[in-house]
Amino acid sequence: MIPRSILCLVFAFLCIFPAFPQNQKNRRNGPNEEDDDIPQRIGAEQMMRAHAAAYPGIISRVEYRNGDWAVLLREKWFYHADGRLLPEERLPEAESYARQSFYSYFPGLPPWREPRGEQAERLKNILTERRTNPPKRDPSFYDTLWQARSKDEAAANLVHIKFLGKIFAVHRDLAARLQKIDSLIEEAAKADSGIRRWIDGIGSIGAWNWRNVAATASRSYHSYGAALDILPKDLQGKATYWQWTADKDPEWYKVPYSGRWNPPLSVVKIFERYGFCWGGKWALFDTMHFEYRPEILLLYGMEVENP
Ligand SMILES: [Zn+2]
Question: Where are the domains of the chain?
Fold first, then answer.
């Protein structure tokens, strides 16, 4: 799925859009949000070109057509549609869909600052809001990308891998990539006892699961076998997923990094180097979660390598 030419394409992409890292000027002093407002500053053309660079051989063309930027994904045109990524037949009802999740994403963790004022108020109400009015994204772009329009189709794409000592099923196109990540983490653990302890503390790793994102009507990346949840044997009172914390505490967003179960940042970096984003960087934190989103990393000026 991901030809080896990706590095060249990354460089070509960065040459075409050398201004990308300037997005960091818009960076907030706080965790990034799995939210709509920041990514809306990214232009449609940038976004569609990032997708083409991230999935070479699968996205074959980027074009301005019928008044919008579009990509040709597996012989079907998908339009930017204000961040919704819609096929032509869905354009008339575009407004009925939520925007796709194009969160902002930067290297490292920004310094911790507790959300206050309007931001705190919004985060406090977000779970109730989502449960009342779950965001519904059109899944056809990602269904086509991962060739999984149904649970059966998704299951047919799976292969089992052994990763950090656990065996589980992932999308076959990500197996080599994850094996590379596994070997680099194991290698790093030889010199870093913190990484070794983190690996030894892992209780389970869940990957494929045909389901929606909790409190949304939108398909989860787990449905494609393109996301992993790495959970410890014992959270030791630490937070890992914002909704689990929000169920018990309406001020869940005040939990600082030190109150969360976080993997070592050097482990996060290894994942990022091979195209995976970490949910611990979202304001709606999900510290157990990694998902394959090379387009996001490219949009924020990071490089993605092939195994
Ligand atoms: Zn997850």
Answer: 6-299
